[in-house]
Amino acid sequence: MTEPRVSQQTTTPHDSLPGPRSALSATDYAELGIAAARQTTALLTSAVDGIDDIAMRRPSLLPGWTRAHVVTHLARNADALVNLLTWARTGVEHPMYASRADRDADIEEGAHRILQVLREDLTAAVERFFESVTHMDDISWGKSVTLATGRQITACEVPWLRWQETAVHTVDLDAGVGFADLPDGHVERLLDQIVGEFAQRTDVPPVRLRVDLADGRQRDWELAAAKDSPGVGGPAPTVLAWLIGRGDGTGLAGDLPALPAWL
Fold it and tell me: Domains of the chain, with CATH numbers?
């Protein structure tokens, strides 16, 4: 992964999550990802428990998906990541999904289930994921596996994938949880991750980000850095929402360029 250009000013002590390319051992990096995923899972569970059957059928922040689609996707994603962990642990290939068509069909079919089944399915899938991580060891955390996109990663990144899924899609439920409600350090880590992903692409316009973090620090990132690239600044949750298409950038300073879809 290409590293984003970052400058950081520290004004107060803080506890940050590790960056996408941490120097930690595979096991330590995975354990931090598991802990972070547990934090966002608690938010997810609370949000889903607060949605009644009528509200579950209403639109989420994702075009074409109801909240039930998002819940079903999160359940199937947990199972898909268990497949990757099984692959790393056993050495036997276990793809995330049989195919993209099967994945989409499972989500569409699952979204029409009754509320109790939706909740029970999510709970069971989450339990399977966290049970699966307990069977990993130092060697298996260092094994390579392949995502549905074809990108190869190390197994220790899998818990962080689950963390990202639960963090972003809990907000996508549009059920009272925004990016500002994520635990300390999570928004900053998401920005690190997403800027790093954009840095690998050729369709991203040059733009400088100046981000105000909740603990009083300010950080700068560059997307597709170029001389005299425009600057965009503002609170971290607002910048994050704009970057990934969950907000229109209202409240941000500067001229906002059009960004390609994140996912």
Answer: 26-177 (1.20.120.450), 185-243 (no CATH)
